[in-house]
Design brief:
mainly alpha; 5 helices; CDP-diglyceride synthetase; membrane; transmembrane helix
């Protein structure tokens, strides 16, 4: 059985939470300010927007800045954490793109798929960089998904999230 470095796994779960939670926090704190959509409101042939109304520059910038700061504080380096956040956001945008093509709304829940690309992409890319195993990658992804299932309803009750998922 492979040894799992729970310290590294825990830090990467926290980094994923920061990268993916920063847009939610930015929306809560800034309300209607800086809500420029990533897709500029462009709709494709299916009539659906490219990514949807909830994907904004505000959220992406918040993710990049806060994740860089968190990465520096966790000792991973700001530049590495910035790239990590970029991969999280690319994964999130890809998920939104696929959901729109399936006719799903921005707030529609897509069980496990909602978290898959935004975690899988950065975790797999950084596996050789930060030296964790495939088992640890699985622990990190599972830890993030479970953490999100616990944290999201709490943030909804506190009025930070619009939906409990």
């Amino acid at each position: 059985m492979a040894d799992i470095d729970y310290h590294v796994s825990g830090i990467l779960i926290l980094l994923l939470l920061v990268a993916n939670g920063a847009p939610v926090l930015a929306r809560y704190m800034l309300r209607r300010h800086f809500t420029w959509p990533i897709d500029f409101g462009i709709a494709l042939g299916d009539g659906q927007r490219l990514f949807g109304r909830t994907k904004t520059y505000r959220g992406v910038v918040a993710s990049l800045l806060l994740t860089s700061l968190a990465g520096s504080l966790f000792g991973l380096g700001g530049l590495s954490a910035l790239l990590f956040a970029c991969l999280c956001m690319v994964g999130d945008l890809l998920t939104s793109f696929f959901k729109r093509r399936l006719g799903m709304s921005s707030s529609a829940r897509f069980f496990l798929i909602d978290q898959l690309l935004e975690t899988l992409l950065p975790v797999l890319v950084f596996m050789p960089v930060w030296g964790y195993s495939m088992i640890e990658a699985g622990v990190i992804i599972l830890g993030f998904v479970l953490s999100g299932w616990i944290i999201s309803p709490v943030l909804f009750l506190l009025g930070v999230r619009r939906h409990p998922h």
